[in-house]
Design brief:
Blueprint: H1 60-66, E1 71-75, E2 78-83, H2 92-98
Length: 101
Amino acid sequence: LKEEVTVYPGDTLTTECTYGTTHKTSVVYGGFGTPQEMCQTFFLYYPKFNLSFCESRPTVMTTVSYAGVQNFTRGPGFFSITAPKHLVNKTYEEVMEAAPW
C-alpha cells in the first residue's frame, strides 16, 4: 500500500488475484500444487494479535455457477448436479472442462 492503513478488530481484509492461463489448452484448477493456480498474499502487521480466520479459496458455488450450474448436492466423495437439466449427470470435471474460460 502507498499509505499506512489502520486495521481495527472486526475489520475484513480482502485480496483479489487475476490469473493468466490463456496460453493453456485445458482447464487449470485452483489448488496448492505446482500445476494448479495459486494466489499468495502477505500481510505484515504490528502489534501481534490472534488471527481468527483466513480463507484462501473460492466457494464451490462461485466456481460451478460460472460453468452454468444452478444447483447441486455434495458430500464426502460425491458431487451431483441437479440443475439445469442439460448438466444433470455430468461430473464436476466435465462441466468445468466445458466452461467458456
